[in-house]
Amino acid sequence: MKWLNRNDDTSNYEDRRGMSRGRKAAVGGGLGTLIVLALYLFTGQDFSPVVDMFSGGGGTQTMQVDPARANENEDLKVLSLGVFNSANDVWTEIFRQNGRQYRKPTFVTFTDYTTSACGGASEQVGPFYCPGDEKVYMDLDFFHKLANQFRAPGELAIAYVTAHEVGHHVQKLLGFTDQMQRYRGRVSERQYNDLSVRLELQADFYAGLWVHHAVKMGTIQLEEGDIESALGAANAVGDDTIQKQTQGYVVPDSFTHGTAEQRMRWFMKGYRTGDFKQGDTFNATTL
């Protein structure tokens, strides 16, 4: 992915890297991380109970960061912030064309642990959007896991994740998030899981939509292998892919984000059509 006109604006950016809550115990990048990612990747839920399972309490302290990794993460910050700003530009225009006003979220990078209006979140959670404070939270070390642990490297893979989270903010502005909250506890678990899948697939569609318009607006230029990189990320975070990795089998009724095939297909639909109105996953007869 080549930038043609990157926007490095930091007016909606918070850098919390280097500060972390103290811990009683640490968790490595093994099965525990995969399970938490499987349950909480790309959501805006309250993570506090999960974090407490894997880490103890304590005060805020300064993190010791490896200089080489810090330089790599600075590059990741520049990339993801550029995508975040570009996605906001795209959605501002789409909202304008549909007679609406777009309100920008805030982009937060952190290391190891942070707090949000949705509760506390550790590095195991992965990127998430919190509708309570309208902020996208990202521990940049996640992208190393995405490349190495989930075998989904590449700049457009990172862009896909970032644009997906901005997509959740779009859903908040359009009322889909509040609608989901109203269904919580009023429908069966299976029905709610189906709605959750539709919410996530719509955010995947929005990520593809961003790519389409970012190219059209002259912000980025796609290079060989870029789309495959994004599809690799979508495949890596499919419910079936993660369940196979963590437990060796799949339970379709428990899916909350969609299969790898569904996630790739909706991303590609957004990318190919560029049509905001074709992303209505909630009324789609086939996912």
Strand arrangement within the widest β-sheet reads: 2-5-9-8
What structural class is derived from the secondary structure elements? alpha/beta
Largest sheet: 4 strands, mixed
Order of helices and strands: EEEHHEHEEEEEHHHHEHHH
**Total of helices:** 10
Percentage beta strand: 5-15%
Overall, the morphology is globular
Radius of gyration: 18 Å
Helix proportion of residues, in percent? 40-55%
Strand element count: 10
Q: Note poorly predicted spans.
A: 22-63
How far apart, in Å, are the first and last alpha carbons? Answer: 28 Å
Mean pLDDT: 85
Tell me what the structure shows.
Helix content is 51%, strand content 12%. By secondary structure, the protein is of the alpha/beta class. It has a domain at 2-13 and 66-108 and 141-283. The strands form four sheets. It has a four-stranded mixed beta sheet, covered by helices on one side. Strands 1-10 form a two-stranded antiparallel sheet. Helix 1 (31-40) packs antiparallel against helix 9 and helix 6 packs antiparallel against helix 7. 45% of the residues are buried. Mean pLDDT is 85; it is low at 22-63.
